[in-house]
Amino acid sequence: MSDKKGMAKRWWRVLPLLFLMYAIANIDRNNIGFGFEGMEKDLGIGATYAGLAAGIFFFGYMILQIPGGHLAKKWSAKKFIALSLTAWGIAATCMGFVHNLPMLLTIRFLIGVTEGGVWTATLILISKWFPLKERARANAIFIMCTPLAAIIMSPMSGFLLDKFGWRGMFIIEGMLPFIFIPFWIWLLSENPNEAKWISKEERDYLNKAISEDQKDEEQTSDSFKDVFKNKSFWLLIGFYFLIQMGFYGFSLWLPTITKQLSGEGDTLVGFLTALPWLASIVGLILFPRYSDKHDKRKGPIALSVGGGATFLLLSALLGNINPTISFICLIVCMGFLLGYLGIFWVIPPKILPDKVVGSALGIINISGAIGSFLGPFLVGWIKSVTGLAMSGMFLLVAVLYIATFLILLVKEKKSDITVHTTNLEYENTVKSLK
């Protein structure tokens, strides 16, 4: 290839925009974990209702999963996400003005609705820019927005909490989407054919590689009737339900757990809470890299989730014995736990018909949304009974071990993960740029 720099452009032109967009979504979704203590006191609610407020987001999140995936596939993922940015920015800012439990639950529900189709739409955008053999790495780079958002959010939210209270924290962080929208509209192209900055070599490569991927995918039927007969599809649904239950049950209560283990103030707790998220970046790099290099999906996912469950169990067992070692185990747990994400989303397009994959991804995400509601709510209920959020971790450990077992039962055809020989020239070019 004559234009080596041009061949690498989409990695730093497309992914950073997707990365920043969803980092903002994660901040507005998860900052409620820092507001729990203040809201419980000012609104007169207990830990059970605080967990309900955190989890009800995911009931709203389910609503636009299938419509969002369909619109992103048939209309425009870029325009759909732009509208979503505006809507969730308004809802997130309103979190600073709630005065009672019904208002809190309503606003959190609306944040869920307005963010609901964004994940599926983003995965569809990635599929337009990165062929299957690169997609685990592309997904992983995008998904690093989750730990990055937490790394930024944790100290920022702790600081804002100290300076402006929980209301000020929600209002300031709720304004972030409005700052980002102009960059999204001006800099992102829907697909390679619309991008003026892309080289002819890269455009031709992408059109050919993605076309070949679509031919190789299993497309015996385009109806949901046959999709629902696919046992692996149901295993993916079950896995994602359980992994999201475990992850959000852990992550949304992480600031509370950190404060209980450390006994420090909000600002320092914010910095401490960022450490597990820093560790997760390591997992998001290493697991997908291994997956793409060895053409393996299920094994790295199982190691990621099972390893996270093991260290979460150790943390829960040591919480009352040695808080320092317990917190270190939490850090290592997160280093394992998120490693599966970039790999997992490579699997559905390989076992599902292309014409319905957008909606199928939405269904999988709906199952995850239900689990994401149950995790924080059940941990909140257990905290209200025991007085310790850490007690709920034992339930989450069991959930994560079951998820590990389910992913190993998914069946993939070997041909679905074989690197196309026609793409080897480009792969060598990419390696030479690293």
Outline the fold blueprint:
Layout: H1 4-7, H2 9-13, H3 15-30, H4 32-43, H5 47-63, H6 65-94, H7 101-115, H8 118-129, H9 132-143, H10 145-174, H11 176-187, H12 200-216, H13 224-227, H14 231-251, H15 254-262, H16 266-294, H17 298-318, H18 323-337, H19 341-344, H20 348-351, H21 357-386, H22 393-408, H23 424-433
Helix pairs in contact: 3-6, 3-9, 3-10, 3-11, 4-5, 4-10, 5-7, 5-21, 6-7, 6-8, 6-10, 6-11, 6-21, 8-21, 9-16, 10-16, 14-21, 14-22, 15-16, 16-17, 16-18, 17-18, 17-22
Concise summary:
This protein has 434 residues and is mainly alpha-helical. Helices cover 79% and strands 0% of the residues.
Q: What do you see in this structure?
A:
With about 425 residues, the chain is mainly alpha-helical. It has one domain: Growth Hormone, Chain: A (Up-down Bundle). It has 23 helices and no strands. The protein has helices at about 5, 10-15, 15-30, 30-45, 45-65, 65-95, 100-115, 120-130, 130-145, 145-175, 175-185, 200-215, 225, 230-250, 255-260, 265-295, 300-320, 325-335, 340-345, 350, 355-385, 395-410, 425-434. Helix 4 crosses helix 5. The chain is globular, with a radius of gyration of 21 Å. The chain starts with a helix and ends with a helix. Mean pLDDT is about 80; it is low at about 1-5 and about 415-434.
